[in-house]
Amino acid sequence: MPETRTRNYLCHGLPKAPRSTSWTPPAPPPKLSKWECATSFNPGGDPAGELDNTCLDSETMEYVAGMRNPGSATLGIRPDPDSASHITMFALSRMDPSPVIEWAVGWSDGTAAPTYGSPVDAVTVDAGGTGYTSPTVTFSAPEDPNGTTATGVATVDAGVITAITITDPGSGYQAAPTVTITGTGTGATASASTRHRRAWYTRDTRTWTTMQVTSPTVPVRLPGERPRSPVIVIKRIPAASTG
């Protein structure tokens, strides 16, 4: 079993602009932050409630599982005003309404960083072009610097590109990448699409704990106060409600 030493990453959005009667600005893309100097971590849980299902003629009490109750996770820290991640978490704790934060904890059996975004879901050939023999398909890089670039190969029939097959969907895309087709032919174009819902992409070379949390409670270290090890308390969102 891996050691309990962990690396914490959180993905958070920015506060939404006030709703307008005529136009609502789009939400900005989420930001991935690495948590600095955690001293402890307890993921907590989201246990299911119990619903009494006992009949009048039953000899023992009978229960069925109900909805899951949001539990609390705790993260030990030494508050540092010079730490960008500590300031970020404090700012998130002051938001109203409280934001939903995606949290990923990487165990000490690996070093890979997670990415947050979407893989490429599909590629559509908009124009097949002419004269192609062995074309090369290239996707633009993802916005997440820790993401991976998608790859694909083209199917050619009588010099015309008829389809593009995704060989690696990549990760970390905030928007659909640009598809470029090069080779001996001319005139072929294609467009890519990504999955609608962004999510964590965690590599199999490391053990991960991921969850959605909200309502962080962050302790404040006063000027001149001795360093201490308080905890941040965050409410878990039950897994059954994350979609």
Summarize the topology.
Blueprint: E1 6-12, E2 31-34, E3 38-42, E4 48-52, E5 63-68, E6 72-77, H1 84-93, E7 101-107, E8 115-117, E9 120-130, E10 136-139, E11 151-157, E12 160-168, E13 179-182, E14 186-194, E15 199-201, E16 208-217, E17 231-236
Antiparallel strand pairs: 1-2, 1-7, 3-6, 4-5, 6-17, 7-16, 8-15, 9-14, 10-11, 10-13, 11-12, 16-17
Task: Summarize the structure in words.
By secondary structure, the protein is mainly β. Helices cover 4% and strands 44% of the residues. The chain has one helix at 84-93, and strands at 6-12, 31-34, 38-42, 48-52, 63-68, 72-77, 101-107, 115-117, 120-130, 136-139, 151-157, 160-168, 179-182, 186-194, 199-201, 208-217, 231-236. The strands form 5 sheets. Strands 2-1-7-16-17-6-3 form a 7-stranded antiparallel β-sheet. Strand 11 and strand 12 (160-168) form a beta hairpin. It starts with 5 loop residues before the first strand and ends in a 7-residue tail after the last strand.
Low-confidence stretches: 1-6, 13-26
Give the proportion of residues in helices.
Answer: under 10%
Mean pLDDT over the full residue set: 78
If helices are DSSP runs of H or I spanning 4 or more residues, what is the number of helices?
1
- What is the overall shape? extended
Number of strands: 17
- Relative strand content: 35-45%
Lateral arrangement of strands in the main beta sheet: 2-1-7-16-17-6-3
Order of helices and strands: EEEEEEHEEEEEEEEEEE
Give the radius of gyration.
24 Å
Structural class: mainly beta
Largest sheet report: 7 strands, antiparallel
- In whole angstroms, the N-to-C terminal distance is 30 Å
